[in-house]
Design brief:
Layout lengths: L1 E6 L7 H16 L5 E3 L19 H15 L6 E8 L8 E9 L2 E7 L24 E3 L2 E5 L15 E6 L7 H16 L2 E6 L1 E4 L2 E4 L3 E3 L5 E4 L6 E6 L7 E2 L6 H19 L5 E4 L4 H14 L4 E5 L7 H14 L2 E4 L3 H11 L10 H22 L2 E4 L3 H6 L12 E2 L6 H14 L5 H5 L19 H13 L4 H6 L4 H13 L1 H5 L32
Parallel strand pairs: 1-2, 2-3, 7-8, 8-9, 13-15, 16-17, 16-19, 17-18, 19-20
Antiparallel strand pairs: 1-14, 3-4, 4-5, 6-7, 9-12, 10-11, 12-13
């Protein structure tokens, strides 16, 4: 049996455009003369469509587009297309997550997803789980079952020799390899071949890595598609040896970088923008974001904005200019000292008798945010926010200042990984100045300031954050593991007190299993549940 997997980058809500993308993929795959062509899960409406699925007329329009697509593909091999199907039973949720078999110009039959996940795709809000189906298709001399989304051995149709799997598995670091290992294990232990078409592309904060894959009944990887790129994966199940296996770099730095590039490109373009700009401080975070933006969009579509204050060091300005030159991007310099003086004068009476403090530091960040947003309004480019996950976790950022923007590129990247990504970039060619990698991080909002005046060392901070955010550990458990109690409680207080900032930040790209934008649902007006100092 020959199967083609369409690893297509769909646009949420673009029903007609997605139909065109599927049709183009079918045209390419047809040259392989497959017995079946498979699209990813929810390929027609795009994934995740979220509350578009509840809009009057959206589902009806999708069904009409599906019928038109079937007619367009009348002369093509059978095609399995992911779509949202109305639940006409009158019981449960309004829709099924479904796949339609298009053959001979018509929608011949449909299959519904039985394993509905309450996770990051929020499927339980929209989709009713279907009873696992035992229906099989006779294709290419094989008995073929259809399983949508996650595959569980108990859901495999009896007597199936091949399982085709429309999927939309969101990316997190290490997840593609784990998924392939799981599919291989299920194939081997159940003696069934598996061909899985996985979505590719960035949709809002979620990124889909592609890497569609096929396995023999013995669990051998026969083919997998490109990572973070569209692809048509052709596999002949009669050939037991690997056929189309695109190279994959297993290093987390490599796959996170590719994910951020794809997520940035798709978010900017799917939101209707062509160009971006960002504040360049001469620091590591803005340097990395600028490099990712250039890789995603091209240097001609990226503007670096230097916003020096009286506290900005000459070295930082030099580093920012060197970075811009290395990347080949344009630079705009807008000093903020005159605006700072205007604010000082305007607030002089109200602040009389009170010494300067963090208020004046935050004003600098907010002045920069206002200028950067003004550039966005005037020139129609998207502002990229440059804050990292470690800073967002503890609120080391200024609301309406450095958190301003349309997309926060590295919002789910801890500080330590920021440095690792920067060094990964520099291994290919010198991009980020060496001094940026070596100097102490600083917001430069007062003379001689460094981040470590306000925060624990980043390696210690990241370790505590990982244990709490990713591993759900309590303060007592982290302290028992050998971390200093005073620092642990300091970090927990900061996390709790700054939830309101994270709620108002720009959308961030998800690259871990616990992103603030998607996987973290904490109350704002809440008291700490732990007893500080308890041992």
């Amino acid at each position: 049996m020959k199967i083609s997997l369409l690893q297509v980058n769909t646009v949420v809500g673009d029903l007609a455009g997605n139909a065109d993308r599927i049709a183009a993929g079918v045209g390419e795959a047809s040259r392989f003369r497959p017995d079946l062509i498979v699209t990813p899960e929810l390929a027609l409406p795009g994934c995740p469509s979220r509350d578009l699925l509840l809009q009057n007329g959206f589902i009806e329009r999708g069904l009409a587009v599906l019928e038109d697509l079937a007619a367009r593909l009348a002369g093509a091999p059978p095609v399995l297309v992911g779509f949202a199907e109305p639940n006409l039973s009158g019981r449960g949720r309004p829709l099924f997550n479904a796949a339609a078999l298009l053959r001979g110009g018509v929608v011949e039959k449909t299959f519904q997803k039985s394993r509905i996940s309450p996770g990051i795709l929020d499927e339980t809000r929209y989709f009713e789980p279907a009873v696992p189906s035992s229906e099989l298709l006779a294709l290419g001399g094989k008995k073929v079952g259809v399983v949508i989304g996650d595959i569980h051995p108990s859901d495999l149709p009896m007597e199936a020799e091949v399982i085709v799997n429309p999927a939309a598995s969101p990316f997190a670091a290490g997840a593609p390899a784990r998924r392939e290992e799981m599919l291989s294990c299920i194939a081997r232990e159940n003696g069934v071949a598996i061909a899985s078409a996985n979505l590719v592309g960035g949709n809002d904060d979620l990124i889909f890595a592609g890497r569609s894959s096929a396995f023999s009944a013995g669990g051998t990887l026969l083919a997998h598609g490109a990572a973070f790129a569209g692809d048509v994966v052709n596999v002949d199940l009669a050939v037991p040896a690997p056929q189309t296996v695109a190279p994959v770099d297993p290093a987390p730095e490599s796959e996170i970088r590719q994910a951020l590039v794809l997520g940035t490109r798709d978010y900017v373009h799917k939101c209707g923008f062509t160009a971006v700009h960002l504040g360049l401080s001469g620091g590591i975070d803005s340097s990395l974001v600028a490099a990712i933006a250039v890789e995603a969009l091209g240097p001609e579509n990226v503007l670096g904005v230097l916003l020096p204050s009286p506290y900005t060091s000459a070295a930082s300005i030099e580093d920012a200019r060197e970075l811009a030159a290395n990347l080949g991007i344009r630079v705009e310099v807008i000093p903020i000292a005159p605006v700072m003086e205007a604010f000082d004068g305007a607030l002089q009476g109200a602040f009389a008798g009170r010494p300067p403090d963090i208020t004046e530091e935050n004003l600098q960040a907010r002045i920069r945010g206002t200028v950067l947003m003004a550039l966005s309004n005037k020139f129609g480019s998207m502002l990229l926010s440059t804050g990292n996950k470690s800073e967002a976790a503890v609120g080391y950022c200024t609301l309406y200042g450095d958190t301003a923007g349309g997309l926060s590129v590295i919002a789910d990247v801890p500080k330590g990984m920021v440095y690792r990504l920067a060094r990964e970039l520099n291994r290919e060619r010198p991009v980020i100045p060496v001094r940026v990698l070596e100097k102490a991080p600083s917001a430069e909002l007062r003379p001689g300031q460094t981040d470590q005046e306000s925060l624990p060392p980043y390696d210690l901070l990241d370790a505590i954050l990982h244990r709490h955010i990713d591993c759900f550990e309590s303060p007592e458990e982290i302290i028992a593991a050998g971390y200093p109690a005073a620092t642990v409680y300091q970090v927990f207080r900061m996390i709790r007190q700054t939830e309101f900032k994270r709620r108002q930040a720009a959308p961030g790209l998800r690259v871990t299993d616990r992103a603030f934008s998607t996987d973290w649902h904490m109350p704002i007006a809440a008291k700490p549940w732990w007893r500080e100092g308890a041992r």
